[in-house]
Amino acid sequence: MTALDAQTLASVRVSLDEVLAGTPGDLSSALAELGWADVVEADRETAAVLLFGAQGRALASTRLLDDVVTHALGSPEGTVVAYAGILLGRPEEGTEQVVVLDENAAAVLPITEVSGRLQPVRGFDRATTWHRLDTTASGEPLDVSAETLALAVAAARRALTAEIVGVCETALAMAVSHTTVRHQYGRPLASFQAVRHALAEAHAAIENTRATLEAAAVADAPVATVARAARVAKHRAGTTQALVMRHVVQVHGAMGLTLESDVHRAVTRAAALDVLLGSSRELSTRLGLDLLSGAPAEPIAAI
Amino acid sequence: MTTTEADPLAAFADEARAFLDAHAERRSTDAVIWGKGEDHTGYFSEDPPEVEQALVDQARAWQRTRYENGFGWITGPESYGGRELSGVHDLVYDQIEAEYDVPDTGVLSLIGLGMIGPTILAHGRDEVRDRYLPAMFRGEVIACQLFSEPGAGSDLAGVQTRASRTEDGWVLRGQKVWTSVAQHAQIGMALCRTDPDAPKHKGITAFLVDLSLPGVEVRPLRQMSGGAEFNEVFLTDVHVPDDHRLGEVNGGWRVALTTLMNERASVGNEASTGVARVLSDGFLAALLHESGHGEDAAARRRLAEITADLTAAEYLNRATIRRLRSGAQPGPEASVSKLLWAQNLTRIAHLAAELVGPRLTADTGEWGTFSWNELLLSAPAFRILGGTEEIMKNILGERVLGLPKEPS
């Protein structure tokens, strides 16, 4: 599956968790110190799954997704991405252009046309640095083939799936620890079947989505297949986060609804990530149309 | 599936293909066409007894052909006609055989060859192993599992069927239930209480029971889905020789664990032809079109969700097989697979029921309408058989998430 052996993968995972759990002040130099470029070189797809998994577990908000998209599109340095109008942060000094990315189209705007049209997103997830580009900004169509565009969207969806899986892992870990420590009626909450069954269901959903992501990361398949697999994965990630968060919040009791508990961070992050590049609802509409027009439903990965 | 020269399995796969090419036709890869052929959707057989008997005969004959050509017991010892190859070889063979149109041997393999064969091998005396193992793997002897009782299902350690000492053996007395394939079986593996004073699982002994013995009575247990897949088995003063005991006296729990370990791995990967049809490419999409819901956005989304979940479950199974291939031990992912399998089929049944509407409850002769009642009525069983959902979730909670134990 990957050029990296199990031991390397495990140690990279630990290092990434450390890097992303720290203040992401200077993420790129921390990653450089880790020798991240070599990992990416060895296996770009596995590297992305690892990196975004760690970002999800750390509940960190970064612009790493832009790198996935600009690499896939072959955009020059100094490009940032707007996902249907959402930028993951205010463009830094030296940014030259914004690519506005959608499922079926991409356009490019010089940064000079963007600066005055950005508003911070004041929404569900208070911890993001997301900005919204006003809808009158259109720009010139980006000169890439439909295949390149589809592969870029698919790569971004896989990264988002990995991140949502990471957020879910963290949320489930919070729930396991809370229900193990907290006692009621003289025993840990997690010793009650209603609680353990909810958490077991959450675990099953996460593992299933992880397997879907693994399978969607097959590089040497036709573009349409890669795109469909990424759609399935992102769709699964959306439905999984909804189920996981519902159970995790419930087993935390009312404290889970407050800002005193950290659960809200996972809930809002996962919900926000679900929206990027197609919510599970939007993707299921698209998948349904494809199926009814005769697209094959069968899995793509060989054993 | 691809194989390379470096792959030690490649030669085995080639040999399997050569055998199958010589003895079977390749399965047609055409998609199921709506309105053509059978429209059964059920999991459990509803065939009349004579049809079922013919299918069992075909299964026996095919198993014999496998055995005679070295594919009857791929992992078994050579002394009993096996090949002494790995579980991975087994998986590879199954995968290749799935490309061919061969009789379904589930009646022999799911319980007998898959679970009880390995148990006899691990815990039986030489006399019993010599007598039954080759006969089982040649397709002559079908084995069933006499475990569950009216008072002991998932909580198996509560069995009450008694086995008492006689001069030359044991006498068995009690009732078993949920016994699949007992109506076709020649032997059964029974768990009996031999020490009523010992704590639950400590006073149990396992026996192999010849079902033709006086005092054995098999009665079918008819289900709401129409068929009678399961049986009740009454044991009234059945005399069993001591050499038919498996394992130690009062050591039956260990023996049973060998059997059960082999059970969970298999559920979730098995589909009846009815269920396979439901899951085949395009069948559900055709249902949407044919029931006039092709333009119904909500129905379309549900179809997409179910299909995505089926795809995901398939990916999970494949990931498990990949892990087994690289030498990992079977783990709790079998429980995850089983949960998802039940969940997905249940959702399909409910979607179909909504789309078909009233035609689900009355047989109007219209293809692909009333037949969905089979899946709908089978679906609740998926959440129970092979370990209830509640037990699976307990296993995941304790062994994977590390949650504290329940108070006993």
Automatic annotation (TrEMBL), chain A:
Keywords, ordered alphabetically: FAD, Flavoprotein, Oxidoreductase
Residue stretches in coiled coil: none
Acyl-CoA dehydrogenase/oxidase C-terminal domain span: 155-280
GO molecular function: acyl-CoA dehydrogenase activity
Top-rank taxon: Bacteria
Pfam families in alphabetical order: Acyl-CoA_dh_1 (PF00441)
UniProt-listed InterPro entries: AcylCo_DH-like_C (IPR036250), AcylCo_DH/oxidase_C (IPR009075)
Protein name, as recorded: Acyl-CoA dehydrogenase/oxidase C-terminal domain-containing protein
From TrEMBL, chain B:
InterPro entries: Acyl-CoA_Oxase/DH_mid-dom, Acyl-CoA_Oxase/DH_mid-dom_sf, AcylCo_DH-like_C, AcylCo_DH/oxidase_C, AcylCoA_DH/ox_N, AcylCoA_DH/ox_N_sf, AcylCoA_DH/oxidase_NM_dom_sf, Mycobact_Acyl-CoA_DH
GO molecular function per UniProt: flavin adenine dinucleotide binding; medium-chain fatty acyl-CoA dehydrogenase activity
Acyl-CoA dehydrogenase/oxidase C-terminal domain span: 250-401
A UniProt-annotated Pfam family: Acyl-CoA_dh_N
The Acyl-CoA dehydrogenase/oxidase N-terminal domain, residue ranges: 63-140
Start and end residues of each Acyl-CoA oxidase/dehydrogenase middle domain: 144-238
Annotated SUPFAM superfamilies: Acyl-CoA dehydrogenase C-terminal domain-like (SSF47203), Acyl-CoA dehydrogenase NM domain-like (SSF56645)
Keyword Flavoprotein attributed: yes
Family: Belongs to the acyl-CoA dehydrogenase family.
Name assigned to this protein: Acyl-CoA dehydrogenase
Species this chain originates from: Nocardioides panzhihuensis
